[in-house]
């Protein structure tokens, strides 16, 4: 069955870095646009970034542009999110998700699969 398993979250000080991973299985990874979404504590889901099936094209939300980098390794069926210059407002549960189409939605129902999430906490 389809599985998306996030890892790499943790606690970091402001200005620090983290790299998240999302291991995919049960489907042809290279057929899908892959996404990172996040949910800050007490708030709704936020669209963070997307990468095309080949990895050639990526887009970012305004709040993370120039600080986060999305990438993928299709040979390993793994999605990444490298996060630099982290801020307290980046604190959230980070999810990876997949879809066959390019979307900018923060509605989880728009994605046909997502993982359970990995927690990122940015605090001094």
From the structure above, extract its key features.
124 residues, mainly beta, 7-stranded mixed β-sheet, 4-stranded antiparallel β-sheet, 11 strands, 48% strand, globular
Average pLDDT, rounded to a whole number, is 96
What is the element string, with H for helices and E for strands? EEEEEEEEEEE
Q: Outline the biggest β-sheet.
A: 7 strands, mixed
Shape: globular
- Report how far apart the termini are: 40 Å
Note poorly predicted spans: none
Content of β-strand: over 45%
Describe what is shown at a glance.
The chain has strands spanning 3-7, 10-12, 18-25, 33-39, 46-51, 58-60, 68-73, 78-83, 92-99, 113-114, 118-122.
Q: How do the helices and strands line up, and which of them pair or pack?
A:
Layout: E1 3-7, E2 10-12, E3 18-25, E4 33-39, E5 46-51, E6 58-60, E7 68-73, E8 78-83, E9 92-99, E10 113-114, E11 118-122
Parallel strand pairs: 2-11
Antiparallel strand pairs: 1-3, 3-8, 4-5, 4-9, 5-6, 7-8, 9-10, 9-11
In words, what does this structure look like?
The structure is a single chain. It contains no helices and 11 strands. The protein has 124 residues and is mainly β. The radius of gyration is 13 Å and the shape is globular. The strands form 2 sheets. Strands 2, 4, 5, 6, 9, 10 and 11 form a 7-stranded mixed beta sheet that branches. A 4-stranded antiparallel beta sheet has the order 1-3-8-7, with no helix packed on it.
């Amino acid at each position: 069955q389809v599985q998306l398993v996030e890892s790499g979250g943790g606690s970091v000080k402001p200005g620090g870095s983290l790299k998240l991973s999302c291991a995919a299985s049960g489907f042809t990874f290279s057929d899908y646009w892959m996404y990172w979404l996040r949910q800050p504590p007490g708030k709704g889901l936020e669209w963070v970034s997307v990468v095309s099936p080949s990895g050639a094209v990526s887009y970012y939300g305004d709040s993370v542009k120039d600080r986060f980098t999305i990438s993928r390794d299709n040979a390993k069926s793994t999605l990444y999110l490298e996060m630099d210059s982290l801020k307290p407002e980046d604190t959230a549960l980070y999810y990876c998700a997949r879809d066959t189409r390019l979307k900018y939605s923060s509605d989880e129902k728009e994605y046909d699969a997502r993982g359970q999430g990995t927690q990122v906490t940015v605090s001094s």
